[in-house]
């Protein structure tokens, strides 16, 4: 990635982001095919917890990118990518297939490269960023509430059997 007017610290951080994104989305290849997947798809096999860990890792990557100069508009687009990945990825089986195909982290690194190399995705976009953040927070609260309801239902079913 060639980044114009970048400090060594920024270049190092961006290389790290690129490496982590590949690890999450496309590190592994099935021999004899072009089929690539990463830890995100593997973690997605663990119900709820795996998707939550992947979402947090993706969010940390976006925060790193913002700390190193990604615009608000770019950050909003990146958060949108990880929100889509988290929402569809949470659907059993279908979500695992989606994780393999969508590759939100690699998409976000490509957006970052366009931002630095071509000057795209500039602007504050704080309204979009804050709106996306609020939407993600509401989704997280809703998911937590739903998980509590499911846990309570399973517990009451378990108690009725005993």
How would the blueprint of this fold be written?
Blueprint: H1 8-25, E1 28-29, E2 36-37, H2 39-43, H3 49-67, H4 72-89, H5 94-102, H6 104-118, H7 126-161
Antiparallel strand pairs: 1-2
Helix pairs in contact: 1-3, 1-6, 3-4, 3-6, 4-5, 4-6, 4-7
> Tally of extended strands?
2
Helix/sheet category? mainly alpha
The shape, in one word, is globular
User: Count of helical segments?
Assistant: 7
Percent helix: over 70%
C-alpha Rg, in Å? 18 Å
Largest sheet: 2 strands, antiparallel
Write down the domain tally.
1
**Overall mean pLDDT score?**
82
Are there runs of 5+ residues with pLDDT below 50, and where? 1-5
Order of strands side by side in the largest beta sheet?
1-2
- H-E order: HEEHHHHHH
CA(first)-CA(last) distance? 60 Å
Provide the β-strand percentage band.
Answer: under 5%
